[in-house]
C-alpha cells in the first residue's frame, strides 16, 4: 500500500511530546482511518489516531447518519473505542482530513470529550500533506469544566 508523504512542520507551540517517528506513525494511521469515513452527507472525511499512555493506538473516522445529529466525529470514535477496551489515559491524538491549506481542528464537542480524560495531552491537527500544528487539550479548551469540578460544591 502506498504511503502518503509526510512533512513534519518544525514547530509545536508546547514542546515536543512525542518522538518524530511516533508523530509520523500517528498521522499515517489517522490518514488510513480517514479512508473508512462514512460521510455521505458532508463528503468531508476525517480520520483520527489516538495514542494511549501505554503505547496502544486506536483509530477512528467520522460516522454520519441520515438523522444528522447522530453523526459522530473521528476523534470521538477513536476515544470511544479506547475507553470501551479499558484505556483512558492518553498521550496524543492526530486528526486528519482532506484540507490542503488549513489544519483540521476538533469541534467543541470533541474538545470537551478529550478534556474528560485530562488537560495535558496533545492534539496534532494536520493538513492533507501531513504537516501539523499541535496544541494541548488545555490550550484548545481553556477555563474548562471537567470531572474534578463536580466535587467542588462542598
Ligand atoms: Zn468533533
Automatic annotation (TrEMBL):
The protein's required cofactors: Zn(2+)
Catalyses which reaction? 2'-deoxycytidine + H2O + H(+) = 2'-deoxyuridine + NH4(+); cytidine + H2O + H(+) = uridine + NH4(+)
Enumerate the active-site residues: 75 (proton donor)
Positions binding substrate in this chain are 62-68
The protein's GO terms of the molecular function aspect are:
cytidine deaminase activity; nucleoside binding; protein homodimerization activity; zinc ion binding
* Alphabetical list of CDD domains matching this protein: cytidine_deaminase
Ranges of residues in domain CMP/dCMP-type deaminase:
21-148
Q: Which residues form a coiled coil?
A: none
> What domain of life does the UniProt record list for this protein's source?
Eukaryota
Per the record, the GO terms for biological process are: UMP salvage
* Gene3D superfamilies linked: Cytidine Deaminase, domain 2 (3.40.140.10)
UniProtKB keywords: Hydrolase, Metal-binding, Zinc
Cellular component (GO) terms are: cytosol
**Under which EC number(s) is this enzyme classified?**
3.5.4.5
For whether the record's keyword set contains Hydrolase, the answer is yes
Q: Quick one: which residues bind Zn(2+)?
A: 73, 107, 110
The record ties this protein, via InterPro entries, to: APOBEC/CMP_deaminase_Zn-bd, CMP_dCMP_dom, Cyt/Deoxycyt_deaminase, Cyt_deam_tetra, Cytidine_deaminase-like
Q: Which family does it belong to?
A: Belongs to the cytidine and deoxycytidylate deaminase family.
Biological role:
This enzyme scavenges exogenous and endogenous cytidine and 2'-deoxycytidine for UMP synthesis.
Protein name as annotated = Cytidine deaminase
Organism, scientific name: Monodelphis domestica
Amino acid at each position: 500500500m502506498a504511503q502518503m508523504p509526510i512533512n513534519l512542520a518544525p514547530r509545536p507551540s508546547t514542546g515536543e511530546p512525542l518522538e518524530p517517528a511516533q508523530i509520523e506513525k500517528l498521522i499515517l494511521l489517522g490518514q488510513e482511518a480517514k479512508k473508512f469515513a462514512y460521510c455521505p452527507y458532508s463528503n468531508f472525511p476525517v480520520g483520527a489516531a489516538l495514542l494511549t499512555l501505554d503505547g496502544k493506538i486506536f483509530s477512528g473516522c467520522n460516522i454520519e447518519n441520515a438523522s444528522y445529529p447522530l453523526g459522530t466525529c473521528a476523534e470521538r470514535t477513536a476515544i470511544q473505542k479506547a475507553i470501551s477496551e479499558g484505556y483512558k489515559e492518553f498521550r496524543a491524538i492526530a486528526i486528519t482530513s482532506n484540507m490542503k491549506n488549513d489544519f483540521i481542528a476538533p469541534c467543541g464537542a470533541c474538545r470537551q470529550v478529550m478534556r474528560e480524560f485530562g488537560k495535558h495531552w496533545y492534539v496534532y491537527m494536520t493538513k492533507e500533506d501531513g504537516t501539523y500544528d499541535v496544541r494541548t487539550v488545555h490550550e484548545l479548551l481553556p477555563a474548562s469544566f471537567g470531572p474534578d469540578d463536580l466535587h467542588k460544591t462542598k
